[in-house]
Amino acid sequence: MDIIIHRNHTRGHANHGWLDSYHTFSFAGYFHPDRIHFGALRVLNDDMVAAGMGFGTHPHQNMEIISIPLEGDLEHRDSMGNVAVIRHGDIQVLSAGSGISHSEYNRNKDKQTRFLQIWVFPNKQNVQPRYDQISLKPEDRLNRLQQILSPLPDDEGVWIHQDAWFHIGRFEEDATVTYNLKKVGNGVYVFVLEGRFEIAEELLERRDGMGISDSDVFTIKSLSANAEILLMEVPMMA
């Protein structure tokens, strides 16, 4: 098993006033030569958007973009005519493909919105752009890993153009779960949303990240109550 650990305090940080963003991997003005991507996982941004503010219309191409709201509401509009609001419990995916423009705004005037912005390299280029969002029940992830993304349109969660599987779990103290990788050659990037965990004899705390490769199974142990974790299994060759 090969492991890399990215502690919370080592992430890149940019505070634009309306946007307070932490970058696990190189992004915009933050560059770290050893933190460009983890396999097909290119971007993992922990974003806080101030009340009534947001990202103006901007383009994307040939990237799978996943948004996971953690707090508040985020309104999405795109060049395909989609208008939607995502909230905690929702998962949103945008397959940019041959090209798409979109905007994202905190529609609340009195509270911030926090969400994870995740980019994954696709395994197909210039596909027809696509938007999807689903609502999942957070209670279905108590002491288990709830699948929220896969490569299969008829599987649980949203789907993307990549052999990737995402899971979220919320655990009571001392709960354990075993994760078996779905595809040989993939790796898993673990991101702690809340609480404390032990994985491969390493202690991970809130907003720490760990990349695991060259392993087909590992065990996760929760060390605190209401501990929440995100697993992103991706091919190691983008």
What does this structure look like?
- By secondary structure, the protein is mainly β.
- 0% of the residues lie in helices and 54% in strands.
- It folds into two domains: 12-136, Jelly Rolls, CATH 2.60.120.10; 139-235, Jelly Rolls (Sandwich), CATH 2.60.120.10.
- It has strands spanning 2-6, 12-15, 19-23, 41-49, 54-60, 64-71, 74-78, 83-86, 90-95, 100-105, 113-120, 130-135, 145-150, 158-159, 165-171, 176-180, 186-194, 197-199, 202-204, 209-213, 217-222, 227-235.
- The strands form four sheets. The chain has a seven-stranded mixed sheet with strand order 1-20-17-22-15-13-14, with no helix packed on it. A seven-stranded antiparallel sheet has the order 2-3-4-11-6-9-12, with no helix packed on it. Strands 5-10-7-8 form a four-stranded antiparallel sheet, with no helix packed on it.
- Strand 2 (12-15) and strand 3 form a beta hairpin.
- The protein is globular and about 45 Å long.
- The two termini are 20 Å apart.
Question: Can you tag this structure with a few keywords?
Answer:
Jelly Rolls, globular, seven-stranded antiparallel beta sheet, seven-stranded mixed beta sheet, mainly beta, 54% strand, 238 residues
Task: Briefly note the CATH topology name of the largest domain.
Answer: Jelly Rolls
Query: How many β-strand stretches?
Result: 22
pLDDT under 50 segments (min length 5)? Answer: none
Mean pLDDT metric: 96
Largest sheet entry? 7 strands, mixed
CATH class type of the largest domain: Mainly Beta
Q: Report the CATH superfamily of the largest domain.
A: Jelly Rolls
